Amino acid sequence: MKxxxxxxxxxxxxxxxxxGSPAQAQSPGPFSPFTSLELRVNFQPASNPPLENYGYLPDxxxxxxxxxxxxxxxxxxxxxxxxxxxGHDVDIVAQRHARLQQGGERVWExxxxxxxxxVSMLAGEPFNYVGAYRIQxxxxxxxxxxPTGYGYTTGLARVAVSDGRLTxxxxxxxxxxxLNAVFIRQL
Length: 187
Description:
Elements: H1 2-11, E1 16-17, E2 24-25, E3 38-43, E4 57-59, E5 65-66, E6 72-75, E7 83-85, E8 96-99, E9 107-111, E10 115-124, E11 133-137, E12 140-145, E13 152-161, E14 165-170, E15 178-179, E16 181-186
Parallel strand pairs: 3-4
Antiparallel strand pairs: 1-2, 3-16, 5-6, 6-9, 7-8, 8-15, 9-14, 10-13, 10-16, 11-12, 11-14
């Protein structure tokens, strides 16, 4: 029970001392030493309401920097002009995406503790079958395929982070790359 309370207090950013326990929970930022990190990020225009109620952190194309809830993430350059809401009511996450190659190669990063992560991605645009999606996290291709079905493809891979940043970018052979969402789980 003490471990649960300390973990909950740490995750919420609260300082907590349990009676009879020398352990103290201090806010280490968004990361808890008691639980694995799990994140969902949706790429969308700033004009769209964020999907926080669904557990997603919003990325609006801003340059890498501090964001809400103590997280640090963003792009190598301002990518706000390449955030799209396709407007098809297929799925609220799927209809929003970031263009990774329009106007130059775009790189997205998020600060995470070093370690191994399971990374999954959704890429595409509703009813648009133009492109060859190839996206990597660190040096591992996570997603590779042509848009099918509603115009999407997905991928999943394990990647190792050794520099404190999970890096996502287009892989060799990509054309018209789009990224809707990234799901990150620390192993």
